[in-house]
Design brief:
Elements lengths: L2 E7 L3 H14 L4 E3 L8 E6 L4 H13 L1 H6 L4 E5 H7 L2 H5 L5 E3 L7 H11 L3 E3 L22 E5 L1 E2 L10 H5 L3 E2 L2 H13 L4 E5 L15 H9 L6 E5 L8 H9 L6 E3 L7 H6 L6 H14 L4 E8 L6 H14 L3 E6 L17 H24 L5 E9 L16 E5 L5 E5 L15 E9 L4 E8 L15
Parallel strand pairs: 1-2, 1-3, 3-4, 4-5, 5-6, 7-10, 10-11, 12-13, 13-14, 17-19
Antiparallel strand pairs: 8-9, 15-16, 15-18, 16-17, 18-19
Helix pairs in contact: 10-12, 13-14
The protein binds S-adenosyl-L-homocysteine, iron/sulfur cluster and FE3-S4 cluster.
The site of iron/sulfur cluster has 10 residues, from helix 7.
Amino acid sequence: MKKNLYINTIGCQMNVYDSEQIANGLKSLQYKMTSSIEKADLIIVNTCAIREKAEQKVYSFLGRLAGLKRKKPALMIGVGGCVAQQEGSKILARVPHLDLVFGTNAIGRLPDIVKTVESKRCRVVDVEMSEKIEELDFVKQGHNRGKTTAFVTIMQGCDNYCTYCVVPYVRGRETSRDPEIIVQEIRCLVESGVREVTLLGQNVNSYGKKEGLCTFPELLRRVNDVDGLLRIRFTTSHPKDLSENLISTFKGLEKLCNHIHLPIQSGSNRVLKNMNRKYTRGIYIEKVDKLRHSCPEISITSDIIVGFPGETKTDFEETLDLIQTVEFDGLFAFKYSDRPNAAAARFLNKISEQEKKERLQQVLDLQDRYTTQKNKALEGSIQSILVEGVSRKQNRMDTPNRHPDVQWTGRTFTNKIVNFNRSNGDIAYNDIVPGQVVNVRILKAFSHSLWGEPVSAEPISFGLRGDESYVA
Ligand code: SAH
Ligand code: SF4
Ligand code: F3S
């Protein structure tokens, strides 16, 4: 009998990848994905513990499921991911209508866990960790079928212990996957229609070091050799491990996209030291200069934490100054929040919520100027876009020439989102399909996306012609 699975994914791209593995694994128990929570026989929340707010989101979602469970007592509810790993059986005590808790290393065991809950109607907790990577059989089943882009986790865990961060405690020690297995997985994805992969890890540029596997640039070269793949992206890079070799790889590998996400966290050396980031502001700026020298078109994005314990006004001004010096293409900024286990939770001189809020706003306002300026500079240019699907924001009022039907969406080589009309002039409606590269003239820049018109399309080699249901 077919059963319905609903997954709510909170958190980073690694969780998106994990949720796909969860869905693939549960196919063996006849579960298929549903987008309707009311129809679900099993609801899984894949959780994130990175900031207090992400954790609160988990409990408020779980709270809302109580009514559903009352109406449908056979419904099973499970919690996976980083909050599950952090809290273990404590979540069962806090959420009475919960059936199972599984940690970040338990995805391979999930089908067995679900089978046990189904047959015995008992509550199960599995938060066992292992340094060894358990390769999942279902990875090779060509998941992601019908999508142009896919995430591929190349390493688990993190050994860096930044003092604010929970990841080393909930994802365990840094362990890299075998390059051959990674390449095999990417080949399977390409066979199923994928044209772009994003390689994932908390610190991808230290890939393979501990195990003596190949280096990260070498892995990129191997992935670059996969026939049919058009684009490669990766995230996240740690500035301390950004080698000359990786910097020059941007120039030499044709499929490697011109974008790097390089979190700085703070512009103050004093704060960086207290965060245990192991680089200085000077080293960071030097690396950015080298990247831009090696690959002038590269777009650089970053993360900033405001209000780290003890961050003075002068420290904060140094962060604003760094933003002005580097001129990032985009920035994610966060208010610091204490995480259980993380060392900074015990640091003195905490910054007030009001002060954090004000500092965050200043960072966002400042960055907005650069994002808009950089996007505006692209107006009139022709960008090559890998079409991902149909734009979700098709009815946004700020889109000029709104198409009565829908628009395509994709990204530039530098990772900027571009929406464009399906048909225009010489390019007929059916000439564009997801998975195809289209040259788009940029007509208008917004703060978070660009709008344009297609001017020519490269011939379709592996396009997903005919299926209009792919939504990016
Ligand atoms: N491994 C990546 C990022 C992981 S978490 C790296 O090292 O860059 C993503 C971002 O969340 C971090 O870059 C940081 O800016 C933010 N973050 C992590 N812990 C946080 C905390 N306790 N409070 C606020 N922001 C945090
Ligand atoms: Fe967290 Fe630092 Fe590891 Fe990134 S590098 S996951 S911020 S400990
Ligand atoms: Fe969150 Fe875990 Fe990712 S804490 S950011 S889901 S590794």
